[in-house]
Amino acid sequence: MIPNLDPRVSQLVRDRGFTRLSPIQQAAIPLVREGKNLILIAPTGTGKTESAMIPVFDAMLTGKGQGITTLYITPLRALNRDMLSRLSWWCSNLGFSVGVRHGDTTQTERRKQALSPPDLLITTPETLQALLMGRVMRKHLAGVRYVVVDEIHELAGSKRGAQLAVALERVREYAGEFQRIGLSATVGNPRDIGQFLCGRREFSVVSVPVAESLDIRVEFAGDSFDSQCDWISGAIDRHSSTLIFVNTRVTAEALGHRLYPRGDVEVHHGSLSREVRIEAEERFRKGDVRCLIATSSMELGIDIGRIEHVIQFGSPREVMRLVQRVGRAGHQLDVVSRGTVLSTGFDDLLESLVIARRAHAGQIEEVTIPVNAADVLANQIAALAVEYREIPLPKVKEIVGRSYPFPDAGDLVDEVCAQMAEHHLIRIDGDRVRSSARSRRYLSGNLSMIPDERKVTVFDMVSRKTVGTLDESFVAGFIHTGVVFVTKGQLWRVLDIDEGRITVEPARKVKGEIPSWEGEQIPVPFSIAREVAMLRRTRDFSSYAAGKDPASFAARFLEEMDRNRTPVPDDTLISLENVPDGVVCNVCAGHKANEALARVLSILLSARFGTTVGIEIDAYRIFLRLPPAVKAADVKETLLSLDPAHLEGILQLAMKRTALFKWKMVQVAKKFGAIDPDADYEKISVSRLIETFEGTVVQKEAYRELFSVYMDVPAAARIVSLVREGSIRVAISHQSLIGAAGLFSSRDMIPPPAADQAVIATLRRRIDQQEIILFCMNCRKWKSRTVVSRVPDPPRCPRCQARLIAVLKPWEEPLIAQVSKKQKTEEDRAIEMKLLRNANLVLSSGRKAVTALAARGVGPENAARILSTLTEGNAFYTEIIRAERNYIRTRKFW
Amino acid sequence: MKMEFLPDGPALVVENRERVLVAGDLHLGIEPSLSRQGVHIRSRSRERIDRLIACIESAGPDTLALLGDIKHGVPFTTRQEMREIRDFFDEIRSIIPFFVLPGNHDPGIEEFLRPDELFPRDGALVDGVGYLHGHTYPNPALRGHLILAGHHHVMVSVRDEVGCALRAAGYLLARVNETCLQFPPGGDESGTVTRALFVPAFCELAGYDIQHMIRDPISPLSRCIDIPTSELFLSDGTFLGPLSLLEEDANDSEP
């Protein structure tokens, strides 16, 4: 079968039941034998693990060293029974010892591994960090000759991956150069994955083209859950075994609940206990159930036997996901994998069609690898400080610089070290880095780069029940007493924050929104959203895998838009719609570009109108929550005024006071050791704390991450350019079907750069409610106690119809008696003059004068001055504020 | 009496016959305490002291009133902190005469002060104005005057139609109930009311929302204020309005 394999290994291959090797195995095995670094790309279930491990086992036979020979690194959720039992089978038959090490490994097992290190150690990236903290395990790691990284496409695109890349360079310090093998799902940029794993070292890529083996259809069965369930039921009947993928746990449960009565359906997702999941897997494998409903928990290579058909419920959002999931169907490699996407609505349908087309065309998304993530660097420098107790800076730079995510570490390392020293996380002694008293404890609490989000419970005072949870970092940055927010579709006002719990009461009216990033949706990429937009325009579904029903539904939906005379927003048109609480902007640019665009629009609008703007986005629309005075026309003007080159600068300013930014700052600050995982920072003003990071590398990293993970500025700039050059028109429309269809996935509030409007709004409210006394200075017989808001413009005496009306504050009432006396003293006459001056202002300026005279400490002189500025609106109120401020400085006030 | 508001303190200048600069709650040395709570930042004492000196230079007062909680650690935890406090007083003393109303975080501070700089914990009357840290019952001698108090780290939130726009240091001016404050019944003080002006914390890391103060008063003074007639100001002296107005903000039913 394979020449040159050790006969023991060949025999086991036959024992395993392989009569021949898969294409990927045939290509990969010789390369691994030659000691080359390798990236293996293939759909799940194609024997990736064996492809990597067979030659590794073969090589291990020729010479086992001391300590651990092979490290198999995989994310925790992929550490499943099947993989373990397979690898154990190989190892026991070849005389190798195998061990598993992760967060829950027992003390006994750990001691065993320390005393007698396994030849093959299966572990997670986080646990590798823990291993490097121990002297004994470090010694064992010196024997490593092979490192296999599973699910590397996922790791490469995250900070966990950057952390792992550095960890591998740290292992290399003990073990020397070792062979690196990465196992990946299909991605658009395999060579980048290779560089991520190997740094500047050479490597090869072996991949199995997946496109030919996929047969994907897109169906639509109505947008009601009932009709969708009926369709699914029918589909299950048509195949001997079906795997249904859904995007959320809630959907899995809902669907399962509906289909349980059939008796041949099971549900599988991450929140279920291990036992329940394993049982479901078993029953499916044995054929006791013919359908499994799963979330992404089933994307991984758990062997559940043959799957004849895969159903994706709702758009998969990304081509990579669809390929990965449908790829589970079929068994032998020459059989086509069949799948159907059941779309759930108009947007969903078009998106599914586009994604299915791209899957067939092999157009898979690229993984973006984070480079120069300063908080990962901080984490690893702290780890190095603890590992070595004392390590020269050049050495730190050398180790870190070998990894792909930190190519020219130099200056960044210096900056990060200086910042860490400020937080007492390390000590810098000349050009040596030393661990501090806190270093070890920090590491134990920060083994992972996954943000450690404690949940804060939200407790409703009125119903005396817990109504939900919020992320802690987010609470710290944003929630404070008095703030109103939304959760579980209801409005709440914060009464108190204490002991990890927020006490709230129901609030009556919308005054604020907060973002909730728990359950973050997978963002729809820019290119897919643009193709959806184009499809809306061409209405040509012929080259898309659309069944009859979906095509006619889409056509009818668009025709309905035409009948309502609402323009269809597409790749040449952005439509803006006025709705009760704001403006909907129908822009098809994907989540990240829309996030950037939404924030730019909102900061400009909030600066121009001086008011907070709420934003909510999804892939095809932006909702701007605005006060009634700001309309679609204003949004259009702002949009047309944008310059693509300025977007980034605007965003940097815009982000600072937003919840998203504060949340991220807190997370990054934690990684720099500024905030402990169990910190009690309820008594500290977190906003103030965040200000202390202004201009530091902590802030730079928060920006870097927000700009690469949450926002796509180049794509937003592209949209703006297209608008500028006229390729995209902007039109105002009334509320349309498309505009109303939004399920917004991300929300935030953009406060104005200066808070003037809020102060002015407060002033206006105060003056409106100010009690005053009106007194007619003409007939001197009419007096009325009222509030400013009820005074007509102009005010008129009901007795004599004159407009010569004086405005007095309530405590000035006695003055009326004084000027009504028959015999007036010198003083009385002076007061009379003053009231006449007062009334004359009202005569000439009407309601405006009333407003000015109702202000604190403003008498006729000051009111006259304010009125003479001839300002209107906000400027007028600003004058009043200034006058009040001056009064407050004076003797009379105090 | 005149008042000047210095927003970049935040601090206040009271002018009667004398010009007094008032700052409270410096909390020098708060950083180690933050560290024990799990927040680790370097000491910002130098920046804070520089900001105070800038206020002194721009306001040109005759005297500086420090309304307590000048230091933070209770009791002193390190010799380092003791040195810092001693150096601070030396520095200020060389620029301007000052007096201190000791706060709850200030035990031990006496040893660094001259007798004429240390005033009683229950407050003092200077140039017709009362000064107090704010954690104790005020001395009855302050009856009928305006009492400037710190301790409460006043912060206010201002909202507009869409959401929260501003959250910043502020001042609360309130009438206080003399009986509640256990002032002995007065003779001919009728006509003069006792008022308290709560000043914000000079320490940039501290701040309690005003709602806290109202719902959970932590001191005799805050327990005895007349809430309906209380008024709020921003740190630049902008008058916001009665407390009730801002409470309404959040519950406003806008069309």
Percent of residues in helices of chain A comes to 40-55%
The helix/strand series of chain B, from N terminus to C terminus, equals EEEHHEHEEEEEEEEHHEEH
* Mean pLDDT value of chain B: 87
Overall pLDDT confidence of chain A: 87
- Overall number of strands of chain B: 14
Q: What percentage of the residues of chain B does DSSP assign to strands (E)?
A: 25-35%
Sheet with the most strands of chain B? Answer: 9 strands, mixed
How many helices of chain A does DSSP assign? 36
Largest protein-protein interface: A-B, 68 and 56 residues
Strand content of chain A: 15-25%
Give the SSE map.
The complex is a heterodimer of chains A (894) and B (255).
Chain A (H helix, E strand, L loop, with lengths): L6 H9 L7 H11 L4 E4 L6 H15 L7 E4 L7 H14 L3 E4 L5 H9 L4 E4 L1 H7 L3 H7 L4 E4 L2 H5 L2 H17 L3 E6 L5 H9 L5 E4 L6 E7 L4 H14 L3 E4 L3 H11 L5 E4 L5 H13 L4 E4 L14 E5 L5 H8 L10 E7 L2 H16 L12 H15 L1 E3 H9 L8 H13 L3 E4 L2 E4 L3 H7 L9 E6 L4 E7 H7 L5 E4 L2 E9 L2 E6 L19 H13 L9 H16 L9 E7 L2 E5 L3 H20 L3 E5 L4 E4 L6 H9 L6 H9 L3 H13 L14 H6 L5 H14 L2 H12 L4 E5 L3 H4 L5 E5 L5 H14 L1 E6 L6 E5 L17 E4 L5 H6 L6 H20 L1 H7 L6 H9 L4 H16 L6
Parallel strand pairs in A: 1-6, 1-7, 2-4, 2-5, 3-4, 5-6, 8-13, 9-11, 9-12, 10-11, 12-13, 17-21, 22-26
Antiparallel strand pairs in A: 14-16, 15-16, 17-18, 19-20, 20-21, 22-23, 23-25, 24-25, 24-27, 28-29, 28-30
Chain B lengths: L1 E5 L4 E5 L3 E5 L6 H7 L8 H15 L3 E4 L12 H15 L4 E3 L23 E3 L2 E4 L13 E4 L4 E6 L4 E12 L19 E4 L9 E2 H6 L4 H4 L7 E4 L4 E4 H9 L4
Parallel strand pairs in B: 3-4, 4-5, 7-8, 8-11, 9-12
Antiparallel strand pairs in B: 1-2, 2-3, 6-7, 9-10, 10-11, 10-13, 13-14
Short note summarizing the structure:
By secondary structure, chain A is of the alpha/beta class. In chain A, helix 33 (826-845) packs across helix 34 (847-853). Chain A starts with 6 loop residues before the first helix and ends in a 6-residue tail after the last helix.
